[in-house]
Amino acid sequence: MSSIQEGLAKPRKLNVLRVCQIKSSTTLLEFKASGFLFLILFAVAPSSFIVAFCNLYKDVDVTWGEGRAKILNNGKILTLSLDKASGSGFQSKNEYLYGKFDMQLKLVPNNSAGTVTTYYLKSQGTSWDEIDFEFLGNLSGDPCIVHTNVYTQGKGNRKQQFYLWFDPTADFHTYSILWNPGHIVPIREFNNVEPFGVPYPKNQTMRMHSSLWNADEWATRGGLVKTDWSQAPFTASFRNFKANACTWSNGTSPCSSNNNNKPWFSQELDSTSQKKLQWVQNNYMVYNYCSDTKRFPQGLPVECTVRTNN
């Protein structure tokens, strides 16, 4: 299989803290018989500031799980496990204010109903910002659902859900988030429409978090299918987290003085990327809060109706 760099322009100059070669098995850049460009929409920039997580021992902290989170292969892979007693999780040591983030995940195989595997960015405090990927467990043979949400100042209620049209448990796949002052793009686009009164994540630094936990009260078919603990322990695997981002340190950021060297900072969706996102939404969207008139009888949220230049 090709690496995620295949077909992209080679960078001419990089300010590199640590770089590791990503030997990708299957990535979502590739056009497969059943696949499409899913989450990776942006080419590697000619000049950028890269933080590459090569050694998970040095770059993440296990935050909970009492031994259920394990770093393997000299720091190259981290596995999270869930049993009836507890799940597990980890977070990045660094905090970020804007960036492009990639993570390779291999989800829980077989009957994972009731479980949730997460990969997200989140700030601290009671008025937090958050950008979510939540992969909902499924019965063997059923399609996997990815649940997305965007929180601003502690307010979410911006759910969108999609079926995955490939097997996310058979191999590693790369999932990406772009977060810049103009918009947020995972498998959806959340535009900055602050002039219309919608808060946007711009002032609070965020860490990357991942976890595996039990949510059988709602995760699979609305909670109708419960976790089968005879299948435990459930295990998800993570590798090659890369943050091409503004890393916050001692109250300052390398992006504060010169953003021109970081093209992702002003990256927009071109027409091709917009068509690909639309293809995903037309064919695999399960739920869209922007279409839920029953939930919002007084009118859809402002960000759903405002037209932007992106």
Automatic annotation (TrEMBL):
Keyword annotations from UniProtKB, A to Z: Apoplast, Cell wall, Cell wall biogenesis/degradation, Disulfide bond, Glycoprotein, Glycosidase, Hydrolase, Membrane, Secreted, Signal, Transferase, Transmembrane, Transmembrane helix
Q: What is its EC number?
A: 2.4.1.207
Task: Give one GO molecular function term.
Answer: hydrolase activity, hydrolyzing O-glycosyl compounds
**Key word Transmembrane present in the record?**
yes
Q: List localization entries.
A: Secreted, Cell wall; Secreted, Extracellular space, Apoplast
Looking up PROSITE patterns in the UniProt record yields: GH16_1 (PS01034), GH16_2 (PS51762)
GO biological process, alphabetically ordered? cell wall biogenesis; cell wall organization; xyloglucan metabolic process
**Where does it mainly reside?**
secreted
Signal peptide, first to last residue? none
Top EC category:
transferase
Q: What is the recorded name of this protein?
A: Xyloglucan endotransglucosylase/hydrolase
> What is the source species?
Dipteronia dyeriana
